[in-house]
Design goal:
Layout (H helix, E strand, L loop, with lengths): L43 E2 L2 H6 L1 H11 L9 E2 L5 E3 H7 L17 E2 L10 E4 L9
Antiparallel strand pairs: 1-2, 3-5, 4-5
Length: about 130
């Protein structure tokens, strides 16, 4: 017979701290923007005005995300991990050349990622992304 589904009218409750109890792996969870404490030489935007004052990165953010965010600062380029290299280059962001070999240290820009054989992408290596693995 046909399936039936009921939808609750009650609002969804989301905890302010999305982590699960420490007994459930993986723990600890991935850092948020700028939480690693090191920018590895990448730009950090403390305010919306800081981002707007940087022609290259403000162009990149508007191109990729559609607008300059009004909240969520600081923003650390190091924490973005995946970059759209064509947009970054077109906007005048100075990233240098991405290496084609496996990265060995935090902050290294690399051009090859398993499953993403596209020269339009670049990645910033961060060992923080592997915490809890």
């Amino acid at each position: 017979g046909p399936l039936t589904m009921s939808v609750s009218e009650q609002p969804l409750q989301i905890a302010s701290d999305p982590r699960v109890d420490s007994a459930c792996p993986p723990s600890p969870y991935v850092y948020g923007h700028c939480a690693s404490g090191d920018d590895h030489g990448y730009t950090v935007f403390m305010t919306q005005a800081d981002l707007q004052a940087d022609a290259g990165w403000s162009c990149y953010v508007q191109t990729v995300y559609g607008q300059i965010p009004s909240a969520g600062y600081p923003l650390c380029v190091y924490g973005w991990f995946k970059l759209y290299m064509t947009s970054a280059s077109g906007c005048g962001c100075n990233l240098g050349s991405a290496q084609t070999s496996c990265p060995t240290g935090d902050g290294q820009l690399f051009a090859r990622m398993s499953g993403f054989d596209d020269p339009g992408y670049g990645w910033i290596y961060s060992s923080d992304l592997m915490r809890g693995q």
